[in-house]
């Protein structure tokens, strides 16, 4: 950390002399709770500005994959947790209610609507998993027993998460030793997709179980046992290597027919799961695993020299955002996960996480955001230019959330970061750590952790030239 700021600063000043740049970037002092809170609120409002309210609760699917809409609503709820600003709750909660068919209370429209949803509308196991994690975030913000608005008392955020968890589990079978399928439609034998067991379906199920283990402690042991079963299968199936790298999935027509591509969201979602299982159990096992996956993921998805998060498609400019088969947005899942792990991990890894999130935020603000804080999801390299699109903003929002979350954690803890994490649990709203001028009950003048080298961040951003 100590070495990062001088490097960035030096680089920034150097480039500045060569190419003086208009002060177009959005100005934010990352050390200031008020500034950062305002920026987070602005980024969230920008995300909502792309949304036209509709009965399905989704962004236009010509712009955004269905599952990404689910991620967007969760990111707004997490922003509420981080900065105490609930001004977008009505959108996030209303969209979750609409997408789960109000009184039906699942994303597949109950038993009757299933086939249409699964086969024709393409709601696969990973898709509903992403949405269900946002329901879990709703439970963390509003309470584990809180009903979803307008649904009476029968449907809670927790029950929506749990129903989806069980629906995903229906799609586990013994073929190739276990695993949850990617698609929900087994009927089309010719489609290779229908036999594919994707890593993300499995890590999402683990993450959902881990969140439920915290929200529903009475059933914790069952969630934990199932999480271990899935995790063991990732190893026994060879989808996870002995260096904690994750391949994308396998075609079950031949069990070792593994698709070897590595995406940051696979490891990100696993870190998310392992961090929450550690929170739920306090068993060292989960933390050891989470740390190992963290080390492996950061070695793969952080640009060396700059410490900026980047997906592997970025250096070769093959992310293909235009036709929706992106890839540069995957690291939003990773950014979010490292912030979940942050309060539990050791000081050295905390410093690493802080370095990576800080460098990524600084790079995004300097390269990829316009003066109104509409930001690209690519933060380094040739692709890092301002972009105004909901997909980009969803990814940036996850980085913003990760950054405000670790700032809030250090802020609450003063110099002892380890016990600072209060962002989860059924009293999330009242017990949470809020940040900045949106905070309820925190003095806005409260000081942040000295770990973030004071002043450096501000100077680099204000110069707007690295
Ligand atoms: C939910 O659907 C209703 C009915 O179509 C609509 O009036 C409302 O605006 C929608 N809410 C959101 C947040 O999209
Ligand atoms: C192996 O995977 C490829 C795609 O990577 C797929 O086209 C093929 O059908 C699979 N083979 C079997 C036997 O499942
Ligand atoms: C972990 O989860 C509990 C709820 O079970 C919550 O109260 C606590 O703040 C979380 N964080 C830590 C550091 O344990």
Describe this structure in a few short sentences.
Residues 1-24 form the signal peptide. The chain is an all-alpha fold. The chain is built from 16 helices and three strands.
What about the largest sheet? 3 strands, antiparallel
Low-confidence stretches: 1-22, 415-466
Strand order of the largest sheet: 1-2-3
Named once each, the bound ligands are: 2-acetamido-2-deoxy-beta-D-glucopyranose
Distance between the termini: 18 Å
Helix content: 40-55%
Series of H and E elements: HHHHHHHEHHEEHHHHHHH
The total domain count is 1
Short descriptors:
three-stranded antiparallel sheet, Glycosyltransferase, 52% helix, 466 residues, mainly alpha, binds 2-acetamido-2-deoxy-beta-D-glucopyranose, single chain, disordered N terminus, disordered C terminus
Write structural notes for this entry.
- The structure is a single chain.
- With 466 residues, the protein is mainly alpha-helical.
- It has a single domain, classed as Alpha/alpha barrel (Glycosyltransferase), CATH 1.50.10.20.
- The chain is 52% helix and 2% strand.
- It has 16 helices and 3 strands.
- Strands 1-2-3 form a 3-stranded antiparallel beta sheet.
- The N terminus and C terminus are likely disordered.
- The site of one 2-acetamido-2-deoxy-beta-D-glucopyranose has 8 residues, from helix 4.
List the helices and strands and how they pair.
Blueprint: H1 4-18, H2 33-49, H3 66-83, H4 89-99, H5 110-120, H6 125-142, H7 157-169, E1 196-198, H8 199-215, H9 220-236, E2 249-251, E3 257-259, H10 264-281, H11 284-301, H12 331-341, H13 347-368, H14 390-413, H15 428-431, H16 456-463
Antiparallel strand pairs: 1-2, 2-3
The chain binds 2-acetamido-2-deoxy-beta-D-glucopyranose (3 copies).
The site of one 2-acetamido-2-deoxy-beta-D-glucopyranose (NAG) has 7 residues, from loops.
Keywords: Glycoprotein, Glycosidase, Hydrolase, Signal
EC number: 3.2.1.101
GO biological process, one term: carbohydrate catabolic process
């Amino acid at each position: 950390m100590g070495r990062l700021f001088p490097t960035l600063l030096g680089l920034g000043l150097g480039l500045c002399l060569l190419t003086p740049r208009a002060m177009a970037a959005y100005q934010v002092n990352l050390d200031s709770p008020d500034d950062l809170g305002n920026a987070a609120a602005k980024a969230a409002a920008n995300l909502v500005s792309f949304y036209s309210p509709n009965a399905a609760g989704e962004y236009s699917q010509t712009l955004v994959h269905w599952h990404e809409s689910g991620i967007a609503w969760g990111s707004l709820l997490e922003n509420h947790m981080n900065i105490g600003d609930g001004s977008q709750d009505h959108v996030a909660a209303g969209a979750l209610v609409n997408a789960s068919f109000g009184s039906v209370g699942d994303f597949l429209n109950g038993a009757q609507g299933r086939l249409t949803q699964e086969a024709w509308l393409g709601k696969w196991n990973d898709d509903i998993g992403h949405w269900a994690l946002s329901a879990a975030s709703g439970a963390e913000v509003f309470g584990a027993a809180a009903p979803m608005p307008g649904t009476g008392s029968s449907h809670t955020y927790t029950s929506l998460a749990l129903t989806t968890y069980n629906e995903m589990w229906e799609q586990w079978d013994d073929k190739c030793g276990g695993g949850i399928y990617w698609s929900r439609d087994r009927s089309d034998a010719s489609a290779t997709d229908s036999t594919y067991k994707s890593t993300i379906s499995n890590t999402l199920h683990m993450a959902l179980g881990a969140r439920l283990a915290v929200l529903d402690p009475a059933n914790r042991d069952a969630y934990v046992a199932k999480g271990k079963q899935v995790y063991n299968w990732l190893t026994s199936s060879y989808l996870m290597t002995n260096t904690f790298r994750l391949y994308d999935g396998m075609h079950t027509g031949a069990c070792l027919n593994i698709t070897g591509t590595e995406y940051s969201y696979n490891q990100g979602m696993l870190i998310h799961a392992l961090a929450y299982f550690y929170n739920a159990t306090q068993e060292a096992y989960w933390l050891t695993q989470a740390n190992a996956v963290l080390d492996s993921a950061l070695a793969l998805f952080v640009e060396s020299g700059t410490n900026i998060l980047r997906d592997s498609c970025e250096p070769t400019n093959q992310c293909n955002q235009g036709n929706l088969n992106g890839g540069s947005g995957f690291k939003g899942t990773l950014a979010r996960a490292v912030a979940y792990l942050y309060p539990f991990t050791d000081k050295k890894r905390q410093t690493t996480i802080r370095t990576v999130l800080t460098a990524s935020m600084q790079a995004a603000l300097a390269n990829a955001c316009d003066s109104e804080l509409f930001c690209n999801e690519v933060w380094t390299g040739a692709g890092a230019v301002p972009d105004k699109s909901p997909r980009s903003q969803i990814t940036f929002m996850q980085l913003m959330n990760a950054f405000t979350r670790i700032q809030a954690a250090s802020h609450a803890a003063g110099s002892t970061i380890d016990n600072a994490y209060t962002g989860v649990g059924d009293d999330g709203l009242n017990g949470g750590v809020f940040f900045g001028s949106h905070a309820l009950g925190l003095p806005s003048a409260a000081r942040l952790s000295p770990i973030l080298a004071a002043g450096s961040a501000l100077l680099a951003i204000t110069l707007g030239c690295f």
